[in-house]
Amino acid sequence: MLEQVDENLIQNDVYHLSSYINRRADAIHIYNVKDWLVSQYENFDIDSINLHDFVVQSSWDTVPKPFTTAPNVLAFKRGTKYPNEYVVCGAHYDSYVITEGDFNPDTLVSPGADDNASGVAGILSTARILSNYSFERSIVFANWNAEEFGLCGSYQYAKQCRNDSLDIVAYFNLDMTGYLNPGDDIHIHLLYTQCDSLLGNFVKQVCHTYFPNVNICQAWLPSGDTDYSSFNRNGYQAISPSEDVNNLSPYIHSTEDIIGLSVNSFEQAALFTKLNLACVAYAAGLIYQSVDEIDDYNQEVERYEVFDILGRHVYTKKFISKNMEEIRVTDLQSGIYIVRFLLKNGDVVTRKIIKN
Fold first, then answer.
1. Of 217, 280, 338, 352, which has the fewest Cβ atoms less than 10 A away?
2. Are 134 and 290 in contact (CB under 8 A)?
3. For the chain, percent helix, then strand, then coil, each to nearest 5?
4. Gap between the terminal Cα atoms of the chain
5. How confident is the model at residue 61 (pLDDT cuts 50, 70, 90)?
């Protein structure tokens, strides 16, 4: 499933989203962006698309208050066993550019490639792939509006969910995934509070399982906030993987938040998308019978490694002389294990085994 994440599709989506004059919540263009998002989800195997209307209650002196804007876009994949339990993943689709003096919001240029076309592209790719599979819990693929005016869209939705006693198991956020400080290796900073440490450990374990060479750690934004806080403040476990908080894109909230300058690593954006996909699939309870496994491999296996579901290494077998090999399970406790086969051509194949 992770191999289906396509950097080219992510780049295409970022390019389209950043091609609007702007995606400001108080500009006319935001409605066109909303329509485009709906048209994308209509191409996926989604059960329903809902538009969540809200009014922007911003405390900023530079915008009218309150004002109406385009709705949040919510695409639902219904769970088969626990349909009233939800895993939500989301990214805000509005953009913002810092201005001085009088201005017309409809003519301001605000491409917002990294902030946050990159996150929206990640959610779209996650929905494009996961919509083809079945899950025990329901999944909500969300795009929030008016994040730049104070997390308005996501907060109004999370507040309504709390008032309706909606059972949200976890919220995964994507905001700014495409900028990599020149010379740095790709790494992940996780934004979450201590009361969300269970979810934080879960994301780290998923990362260690599938991306063992990627450094991941908890971090804090030096200023500002993002949509995971809306869910955290309404009592839900929430987390937001982020590009380096100490080296965020220096071009955000400017006309230079574009592909090349601000989004300079689609490899990193794809990695964040893969992590989001894996976390959502695990948390929603992927029904493995819905996955078409490919069992015919012509390449020889060089070695294999076994990990438990928490990403802890169990053992490695090297120097395999043939492609028929018995995997020892007698010493393993009951549970789910991941086996990574490393082929001689450099490919990696993973399989799940269950010991009862």
1. 217
2. yes
3. 30, 25, 45
4. 25
5. low
Q: What is the pLDDT of residues 292-308, one digit of tens each?
A: 554 545 667 778 888 77
Q: In the β-sheet with 301-308, what is the strand arrangement from edge to edge?
A: 313-318, 301-308, 335-343, 348-355
* Mean of pLDDT values over 69-97: 97
Phi and psi based region of residue 137 (left: phi greater than 0; alpha: psi -120 to 50; beta: remaining): beta
* Helical (H) or strand (E) element with 31: helix 29-41
Burial 325-354 (b: 16+ CB within 10 A, else e): eeeeeeeeeeeebbbbbbbeeeeebbeeee
**Tokens (6 digits) for 163:** 């008032």
Higher pLDDT: 293 or 86? It is 86
Contact 264/11 with Cβ under 8 angstroms?
no
How far is residue 32's CA from residue 23's CA, in Å, rounded to a whole number?
9
Tell me whether strands 238-242 and 187-191 are parallel, antiparallel or unpaired.
Answer: antiparallel
Q: Express each pLDDT in 297-348 by its tens digit.
A: 566 777 888 877 666 778 777 766 555 566 667 777 877 777 878 877 777 7
Angle made by CA atoms 252, 117, 63, in degrees to the nearest 5: 60
Does the pTM exceed 0.85?
no
**How many whole angstroms from its chain centre is CA 158?**
17
pLDDT for residue 311: 65
